[in-house]
Specification:
The complex is a heterodimer of chains A (about 600) and B (about 120). By secondary structure, chain A is an alpha+beta fold. Chain A contains 13 helices and 28 strands. Chain A has three domains: about 300 residues, TIM Barrel; about 140 residues, Galactose-binding domain-like (Jelly Rolls, Sandwich), CATH 2.60.120.260; about 110 residues, Golgi alpha-mannosidase II (Immunoglobulin-like). Chain A is globular. Helix content of chain B is about 40%, strand content about 5%. Classes of the chains: A alpha+beta (about 600), B mainly alpha (about 120).
């Protein structure tokens, strides 16, 4: 199949930026699923995973009883396919996976486990194999159904319609609007020229007014790249240039845009023009503009036909294609699965793990198509191999580290839920070198509290029942928090670093203790204290029931019962010791470096 | 430089492709493309695997100093390969005016760079 030469035309409003908050999902997206649990090959073996290793992991999962605790999915990550398609179809790398994937699926299913695979919405997989789903969604979905997979993680490398990892850097032309100097609108009774810098309004974040070569103009009209850790995930992460146009009567008009194009972040070629917002948005242009000589050589566009209502019109010049293109690509794969399911009525669902690394702010749109969405680039780049456990960090460079991922995920609770899906701060690093037992305990407790998918990422042959790694990954109390049927991600209700808006402020300085609260289905709450610092904290940290209710009241099963309880049974999730609290004031006196305390608090 | 030429320089073996595959320096699919040009990220992977599998040299634990190369994290699957060969002084970064330091992952490796890396390796 020939790859498309341009981003998909958007005819369904579901895929528009304006519909990101409307709750609508694509056919085939199932709601109500709890975070997936299992093992993924990447952190353990990188591209070196094999059939022999995968089977060994599956057998160990069963031997350790991890399957009984909820760890069901065995997911093959990158490095398992032939480097090119065979007769247009995906096929197994014969040396690593000699029996093929259907046989492996049968093996895993015979063990009571579920089978997960990996692909990409681009032309190639991240490790290079030219077998991405782009343009092959229908046949690949059918192949996967025939292989009996239950889960798929889908990456974003070599993507054609954004400057994603390994993509052509000039693809930024699709995801940023041109620089805009001004507009002219001509219609019945209207002739107006407006200057972007002085008479336009910048909506959202990211766009800015610039002056170069004596010209003032607006650039940066697009969506923030969220792959790295620098930007908060909360708030409006894209931008528009807006003008107010007043019309005496409803009329058609011609819009002329004075613009200059580039092919780099902040200055692209693709422009969307609309009036109105949400359901009332009307689109008049959604395409590339002809390229200009340079990114500061402005020219006037051909007329764009628009329609104005009587009175004030908000004219929006924008480019939300970074998010819209990526959503459309994932949706195309979901559509492929829906078609393939029709031929296999016995096969009903596949979990979709979106892995575009937070680049396009998937917390805004991921729920429409997927079950979870990665929020950042990888948690470690020092993955293991057979005989090498790989290495992780507590607090590393860039996105690498338990706390690097946690710091972003912990303020993303409002994006997650049973009717949406889950923020994914990546596979766990428990059992890799570089993290001690205390750090791994907190890693597990964090991922459980924030309702992350729980994907083990270690060579399970290194684990024996009763050892410290086993005791962490098999902690039933914490897993129960992650899998609690109420399905609410914990909210940060207090931090020693920030007291005003602990639930939404993006904190990256780890010299602090966070307090997280998570409502549970039986009317209890889980309360977690996390010391992010590499040094002990000796402060007394207190939260009372009123403070908890201030943040959680609307999310709790029975807030009144919690508020009016005469006493609370407080159970430690690690040692299972309980005590009765009659004050409604919950307090710790000091917490060791990188350590945590997690309580389940049940009103009596 | 082709993969075959690159591996021949490293392994000094006429059957370098087969040997490299046996040693775990390249994947099975690489063996089908001996004429493919070797870009620097591919070279980094092969040198790193040579360090691990042939010379049995342990990885550097802390790769964060390699982030001086502004494009280190652009290649998600080869970050560690690049970081290790850079930190061990096997392959150098490219320096540009204004202090910009890049690994230039997708640039084809030159004969001179390979010879310099081999000197550093030995």
């Amino acid at each position: 199949m020939k790859l498309s030469e341009r981003p998909m035309e958007i005819t369904d409003k579901t895929f528009r930026f304006d519909a990101f908050k409307d709750g609508s999902v694509v056919p085939g997206k199932k709601c109500g699923r709890l975070p997936a649990m299992g093992w993924n090959s990447w952190n353990a073996f990188g591209s070196g995973n094999t059939e022999v290793l995968t089977k060994a992991m599956a057998e160990k999962m069963v031997e350790l009883g991890l399957d009984k605790l909820g760890y069901k999915y065995v997911v093959l990550d990158d490095g398992c396919y032939k480097s090119e398609r065979v007769n247009g179809l995906l096929s197994n790398e014969e040396e690593k996976f000699p029996s093929g994937f259907k046989a492996l699926a049968d093996f895993l299913h015979s063990k009571g486990l579920k089978f997960g695979m990996y692909n990409d919405i681009g032309s190639n997989l991240c490790a290079g194999a030219a077998v991405g789903t782009c343009g092959h969604e229908a046949e690949d979905a059918e192949t996967y159904i025939n292989w009996d997979i239950d889960f798929i993680k889908v990456d974003n490398c070599y993507y054609l319609w954004d400057n994603a990892t390994f993509s052509n850097a000039e693809n930024a032309k699709y995801t940023y609007a041109p620089a805009i100097k001004g507009i002219r609108v001509e219609g019945a009774g209207i002739i107006v020229s407006l200057d972007a810098a002085n008479e336009g309004t910048l909506f959202g974040n990211g766009a800015c007014i610039c002056e170069e070569d004596g010209k003032s103009f607006v650039k940066g009209i697009g969506t923030f790249d969220g792959t790295g850790p620098d930007n908060t995930p909360v708030g409006i992460l894209s931008s528009e240039l807006r003008f107010t146009i007043t019309a005496d009567d409803e009329c058609d008009a011609d819009l002329y845009v004075e613009y200059a194009t580039g092919k780099e972040p902040e200055v692209g070629c693709w422009l969307e023009v609309a009036t109105g917002e949400g359901d009332n948005a009307k689109f008049f242009y959604d395409d590339l503009l002809p390229e200009t000589e340079s990114k500061t050589s402005f020219t006037e566009s051909a007329p764009i036909k628009i329609h104005l209502a009587k009175g004030e019109n908000i004219l929006r010049l924008m480019n939300h294609r970074r998010q819209e293109n990526t959503l459309c690509s994932y949706a195309e794969l979901v559509k492929g699965f829906e078609e393939a399911f029709k031929k296999r009525p016995d096969k009903k669902e596949i979990i979709l793990s979106i892995c575009e690394w937070g680049k396009t702010q998937p917390q805004n749109w991921g729920y429409k198509v997927g079950d979870s969405w990665r929020i950042l680039n990888d948690i470690t780049f020092q993955v293991g191999a057979d005989g090498n456990p790989g290495r992780g960090n507590w607090a590393g460079d860039y996105t690498t580290g338990v706390t690097n991922q946690y710091n972003k995920a912990v303020i993303m609770d409002e994006f997650a839920g049973l009717e949406k899906g889950w923020n994914d701060p990546d596979m766990m690093m428990i059992g890799m070198d570089g993290l001690d037992e205390t750090m791994c305990r907190s890693h597990m407790a964090m991922w459980c509290m924030i309702n992350s998918p729980l994907m083990l990422g270690l060579d399970l042959r290194r684990v024996e029942k009763g050892d410290w790694i086993y005791n962490i990954i098999s902690n039933k109390n914490l897993i129960a928090l992650n899998q609690d049927p109420l399905g609410v991600q914990a909210k940060r209700i207090y931090s020693t670093f920030e007291t005003e808006n602990p639930d939404t402020v993006y904190l990256r300085d780890n010299k602090r203790v966070d307090v997280l609260a998570k409502p549970l289905d039986d009317g209890s709450i889980a309360l977690g204290f996390f010391n992010l610092d590499l040094e002990d904290n000796n402060e007394k940290i207190t939260v009372d029931k009123n403070h908890i209710l201030k943040f959680l009241r609307g999310k709790m099963k029975d807030a009144d019962a919690f508020e009016n309880a005469k006493a609370y049974t407080v159970t430690d999730m690690w040692n299972e010791e309980s005590f009765v609290n009659e004050t409604g004031i919950f307090e710790i006196s000091g917490i060791n470096a990188c350590d945590n305390t997690v309580w389940r608090i049940k009103p009596q | 430089m082709s993969l075959l030429r690159f591996l021949t320089l490293i392994l000094k073996n006429e059957k370098a492709i087969v040997e490299a595959h046996k040693l775990g320096l390249i994947d099975q699919d690489d063996t089908k493309h001996p004429d493919e040009a070797v870009v620097r990220k591919k070279a980094a992977k092969i040198f790193h695997m040579y360090l691990l599998n042939v010379m049995h040299v342990k990885d550097e634990d802390d790769i964060s100093p390699a982030s001086i190369m502004k494009d280190l994290y652009d290649c998600r699957v080869c970050v560690n390969h690049i970081a290790q060969v850079y930190l061990k002084g096997i392959m150098k970064a490219h320096e540009y005016p204004g202090g910009l330091i890049l690994f230039d992952s997708d640039v084809e490796i030159t004969e001179a760079e390979v010879k310099e890396a081999l000197d550093n390796l030995n």
